[in-house]
Amino acid sequence: MYYISEKLKKEIDDAGCIGIEFQPAELSSFEWIHGGERDKIYRNNMFK
Question: I want to staple 31 with a disulfide (CB 3.0 to 4.6 A). Which of 13, 19, 27, 38 is the partner?
């Protein structure tokens, strides 16, 4: 896991890079993968 700034995250998103997920630092890996937060962020944005 790497920590990056919101500015770098925005630059990566704006560049159209795909296949990268950004887990909020305040969530554990378990919460991110099994707690539903990942799906809330990425599954909802897949179909926009």
Answer: 27
